[in-house]
Amino acid sequence: MAMHTAPSLRIPSSSLSLSSKLPLSSPLSLRPFPRRHRSLVFLVSASLDAKPTVLVAEKLGEAGLNLLKDFANVDCSYNLTPEELRTKISLCDALIVRSGTKVSRDVFESSEGRLKVVGRAGVGIDNVDLAAATEFGCLVVNAPTANTVAAAEHGIALLAAMARNVAQADASVKSGKWQRNKYVGVSLVGKTLAVMGFGKVGTEVARRAKGLGMHVIAHDPYAPADRARAIGVELVSFDEAISTADFISLHMPLTPATSKVLNDETFAKMKKGVRIVNVARGGVIDEDALVRALDAGIVAQAALDVFAEEPPSKDSKLILHEQVTATPHLGASTKEAQEGVAIEIAEAVVGALRGELAATAVNAPMVPAEVLTELKPFVDLAEKLGRLAVQLVAGGSGVKTVKVTYASSRGPDDLDTRLLRAMITKGLIEPISSVFVNLVNADFTAKQRGLRITEERVILDGSPENPLEYVQVKIANVESRFASAISDSGEITVEGRVKDGIPHLTKVGSFEVDVSLEGSIILCRQVDQPGMIGKVGSVLGQENVNVSFMSVGRIAPRKHAVMAIGVDEQPNKETLKKIGDIPAIEEFVSLKL
Ligand SMILES: NC(=O)C1=CN([C@@H]2O[C@H](COP(=O)(O)OP(=O)(O)OC[C@H]3O[C@@H](n4cnc5c(N)ncnc54)[C@H](O)[C@@H]3O)[C@@H](O)[C@H]2O)C=CC1
Ligand SMILES: O=C(O)C(=O)COP(=O)(O)O
């Protein structure tokens, strides 16, 4: 059945959007993943052979631990040395950490492919090497919401404590002194607070600071101005924020762009006597420059919860500075936040181990559950078309350029193809390599192998009930083991549809066929004449190969035809030879799905 493709509007989709975000600078050390872990369907293994093992490397709330224990063997081993972590990790399917554990490349290498999920029980994932996780196909999830209020409250606590010298005065009283004149503070009301990073924590700090009567401005190049306006906060430039503020509170993530954003140059632009709060990450401040700014009186005081190195060295000039109030990374440390974070991360890790797509995935697209359910048969179709297409390649310039066409009655914004692209990539790469491909590392792996996948949409008339009518995969600049698979445009072409929930192959080259994509497939080109189905069928029958499906596609009667035969098991060499010996058979190929 030929599809009506009017209006034949072709819309290139934003292909390979994931891979473009991934740093590719480091030398690659992809390791073959052991076979036993290849049952991965979506993100991680959908069917783990035995109970998975979760290593909890930092203290986690009881409720979260109980959730994990219902599903997995839980190994709570705190304060591991990097070497102990590397040793343990090869026995673990998931790892849960907070900010105190460095999950670096060597952790992924040492896991030898077993580690499928890293759960960060908190927000900041700067302690996890995301690029390495992605290369190794390991999903990283975090718990982005449960500690927001705790961090904001700690920011406000530090702000007020700093302004009124609470920590210093407390130490003084405890040492037997009564220095009322020394610890005269400054008021918050009417002062300007610059919130740097107007995300979840920054917004909550801003709300609370307004309640204290402060004038709040914010700098965040990515935050929507209307969200700021809604709570009476003006978004301003970086320079305006730091040069007009009496207090600066930092709430951005540590990224290459935010690393040491407060430095000698930027301190010099601040109002003399400014006060700084940091509950974000120590690395956003050049700590040596802060000491200089404190000594010069540019910065009157600083209240810090986070440090470039944690714990900081005991003789750190910054910590020992009289005008500095320090806490040991306590922002998220309330009972309530820790219970919340533990539940949030346990649910995310268990879901990911079950093969579900995580809502808090950091290094994979987040695909809502309902979209996933709808796309499931198309995901199978996509992988099988990829597998089939690559097995048809005989030589040429290698599998480098692949064009995927999705035909759908839905609008381009109503169809998320990232999952399909990942599975086509999996199908294309796995049969020809020892690399394990999943949704996390598909785009990365494609890019690393120089495989360029371009995507196109064909918008069809008709009901948008079905997400997709057909998917077509074309491999350019290659020769084929089955010449009939080369379409008129010169590419290996396979096309498939989902029928009654089952993926079918519906086109090979220019020939229309119809065979369900299960088990193995034999493709034969023959002179179109009566009795061919019977001849091939009886060879297979004699050799005890069960035929599940058969279909013949021809260009014109009595010319050439392509027969697609679905078989439950792959025929042996002798059987295939007997098929090849049938006089009217011109070429044939046996493909494993
Ligand atoms: N001390 C602690 O225990 C805790 C620390 N944190 C830290 O607080 C920070 C913020 O956390 P959330 O608000 O949950 O994250 P978020 O992702 O909701 O907010 C971060 C905001 O920073 C903005 N941003 C990114 N680059 C920026 C730049 N160059 N300049 C200005 N703004 C920029 C983003 O647009 C975003 O709005 C993170 O670093 C997190 O790790 C969070 C919880 C507890
Ligand atoms: O969530 C964050 O980003 C935090 O910094 C909290 O860190 P923690 O889990 O307390 O080690």
UniProtKB/TrEMBL annotation:
One of its GO terms (cellular component) is chloroplast. GO terms for molecular function: NAD binding; phosphoglycerate dehydrogenase activity. The keyword Transferase does not apply. Residues 1-26 are annotated as: Disordered. Residues 521-593 form the ACT domain. Its EC number is 1.1.1.95. Its main location: plastid. GO terms for biological process: L-serine biosynthetic process. It is found in: Plastid, Chloroplast. Homotetramer. This is D-3-phosphoglycerate dehydrogenase.
